[in-house]
Write a structure and sequence with these properties.
Length: 164
């Protein structure tokens, strides 16, 4: 028996309304007008969340958040350096990785391996074809933290980072 609108209508309407209306309380630290800083700070939040999720034993979500942090950190750099129009969102989760290689920020080898890591493991973990483990979650969190810190250092905007 399919879920019908009757089953979820009030909650669905509430969610639609919540996304339509402005003037709501925003998450502290994300209330900046610069599109690049929004990406940077969302990456910070993803890292902080991944760390907490790892502590709590939620490996699937840790891996998800680590991949998200990598994507957002590269997107921050692309916007900051004028290689990405923030009004033109990426077409896939690996766009920021591949675009970073196209403009010479990361090597083709790094981009290829990150793209493969995403393609071969992120989706499998998400859909549970690949079993999330503590070791995989820790490795992804370490990788995403290293990329994030390296980029913030290169850009010289560590003062904008809100990693907790």
């Amino acid at each position: 028996m399919p879920i019908t609108l009757t089953d979820v209508e009030p909650e669905l309407s509430d969610a639609e309304t919540a996304f339509r209306h402005g003037g709501q309380d925003s998450e502290i630290g994300l209330d900046v007008s610069d599109a690049g800083l929004v990406q940077l700070r969302k990456a910070c939040r993803s890292l902080s969340g991944a760390d907490q999720l790892l502590t709590d034993g939620y490996y699937t979500l840790t891996i998800e958040a680590a991949f998200t942090s990598i994507e957002k950190t590269f997107m921050f750099w692309l916007i900051h350096e004028g290689h990405q129009d923030p009004a033109n969102p990426p077409q896939s989760h690996t766009t920021a990785i591949n675009r970073s290689a196209e403009v010479g920020f990361i090597s083709e080898e790094v981009a290829s391996r990150l793209d493969d890591l995403w393609t071969e493991n992120r989706a499998q973990t998400y859909y549970q074809d690949g079993m999330p483990t503590r070791e995989r979650a820790e490795a992804m969190l370490t990788l995403s933290t290293r990329i994030h810190r390296q980029i913030i250092h290169l850009v010289g905007q560590s003062y904008e980072c809100i990693c907790g």
